[in-house]
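Tokens for chain A. Residues wanted.
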């Protein structure tokens, strides 16, 4: 079996990632090719380049690397299995899966133990982007935008994230949004709208407890005209995996959602990566990727 390993070249490998890589290379049945990324979006290019040549693509990195590889696999149209070895700051996507164990992961690759998962698809001004976990507009996207602007400053991932939250607290202004789903409509000012394939983002915040990677639908969490002070007071609920109880908080489900950001354009982020503006539609692609893991 051919296995292509795409490694985020900007981060040092953790001990668990080093062990997983060592164990992969030690399996006689596996022909392993290791490639290090050289900059942003390079993982997507590599995934497209190798998708037709390999049986399995394994990403080593955080949520951003995972997203870039997903962009490449789905965009290529190839039928290739996908695995993820965590080596990032948040690793929120993997919180939906079993606890990562290097030995078990390598056994799953060797024995082709895998499960199909859904993938989210976003259309923005005619362009298409994909997400494995969560995409959102509003406060969360503003945090990612500010984090990207801070990359030249030598900060750790967690410190940069905390600083971006503080800056977003003062910089973000709520916008009006209209959403039309299969059986719901919503219009109003929003602090945040999260389109969830997975349940958890923001370094462990369960924004939609009902979201599952293989249920064939997008779960939507709308944090409406809520002050940032109120939102932060409710973070304890998100950390405990509970829905926020507030008259301006709503939870929906749909296979597709038409999105109209009314007034000023809003940025969207997916899996910690900025997607851009002009969001038109979010939809689910059922069972689009075969993931090396169990869910």
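Reply:
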């Amino acid at each position: 079996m051919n296995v292509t390993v795409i490694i985020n070249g900007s981060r040092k490998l953790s001990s668990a990632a080093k062990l997983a890589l060592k164990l992969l290379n030690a399996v006689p049945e596996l022909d392993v090719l290791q490639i290090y990324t050289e900059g942003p979006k390079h993982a997507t290019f590599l995934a497209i380049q190798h998708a037709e040549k390999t049986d399995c693509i394994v990403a080593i990195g955080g949520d951003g690397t995972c997203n870039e590889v997903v962009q490449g696999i789905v965009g290529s149209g190839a039928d290739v299995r996908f695995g993820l070895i965590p080596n990032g700051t948040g690793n929120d996507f993997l919180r939906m899966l079993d606890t990562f164990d290097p030995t078990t992961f390598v056994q799953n690759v060797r024995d082709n133990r895998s499960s199909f998962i859904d993938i989210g698809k976003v259309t923005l001004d005619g362009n298409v982007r994909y997400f494995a976990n969560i995409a959102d507009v509003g406060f969360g996207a503003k945090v990612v935008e500010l984090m990207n602007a801070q990359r030249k400053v030598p900060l750790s991932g967690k410190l940069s994230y905390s600083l971006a939250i503080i800056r977003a607290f003062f910089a973000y202004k709520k916008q009006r949004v209209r959403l039309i789903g299969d059986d719901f409509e919503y219009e109003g000012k929003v602090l945040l709208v999260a389109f969830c394939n997975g349940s958890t983002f923001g370094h462990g915040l369960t924004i939609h407890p009902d979201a599952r990677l293989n249920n064939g639908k997008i779960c939507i969490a709308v944090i409406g005209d809520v002050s940032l002070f109120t939102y932060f007071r409710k973070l304890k609920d998100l950390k405990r995996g509970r829905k926020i109880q507030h008259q301006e908080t709503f939870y929906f489900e749909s296979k597709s959602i038409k999105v109209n950001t009314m007034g000023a354009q809003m940025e969207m982020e997916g899996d910690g990566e900025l997607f851009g503006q002009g969001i038109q539609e979010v939809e689910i692609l059922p069972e689009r990727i075969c993931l090396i893991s169990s869910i």
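The chain has two domains: 2-113, 123-286. The chain has eight helices and 18 strands.
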